[in-house]
Amino acid sequence: MKTTSIMIVGVGGQGTLLASKLLGNVLIGAGYDVKLSEVHGMSQRGGSVVTYVRYGDKVYSPIVDQGEADYILSFEILESARWISYLKKGGKLITNTQKTWPMPVITGAMSYPENIVEKLSAMADVQAVDALALATQAGSPKAVNVVLIGVLSKLMDIPEGAWLKAIDETVPPKFLELNKKAFALGRGAKA
Which residues in 126-165 are b (16+ Cβ under 10 Å) and which e? Predict the structure, then answer.
């Protein structure tokens, strides 16, 4: 099997690291060789965060270069624009439509770009989801990460039960039901 590359991108505090751990657990459980690399950036201050996940029969490096990602899972729409050059031709961008204003926008030095989803859709296959609304429906806005994992799960050839098992093994028990609901809502989101 060829190596598949996934990038998980967002801003600090959105749960990208839990999402990458959950994804890694699913892939290891499915019998793949998995390499994960976390690049934190300024995560403590709401800065850009990226995690690389690569899997296949044998993977030698966790790093994904420009034009190599089969999937980009983006927790924030502006991060989608920042990382789109890493998506390979024929790859899929799954993005949350949530906007997290960076410091230059907060201070008024810049304005938040308009029509990002439309611009990205002209460049790639994009599935934009209001993951924040679905996470809130599940019981917590912090479950955006598991909603997006649910969306991604539909595109991968791994049974739903394997994903639920990984949630059981990765998420603290007191948040299990909430996260299972968030996963189901993401999995059921319209393309």
Answer: bbbbebbbbbbebeeebbbbbbbbbbbbeebebeeebbbe
Strand order in the sheet with 33-39: 33-39, 48-56, 4-11, 69-74, 87-96, 125-129
Report the largest interatomic distance among the alpha carbons of the chain, rounded to a whole angstrom. 49
Full domain range(s) for residue 182: 4-187
Position 148, amino acid: L
Q: Which amino acid is at 26?
A: V
pLDDT at 112 over 90: no
- pLDDT at 44 (0 to 100): 54
What is residue 186's predicted lDDT score, i.e. its pLDDT? Answer: 97
Residue 170 is part of a domain; what is its CATH number?
Answer: 3.40.920.10
Q: What phi, psi does 67 have (nearest 5°)? A: 75, 15
Taking the whole predicted model, whether its pTM rises above 0.85 is answered as yes
Domain count of the chain? 1
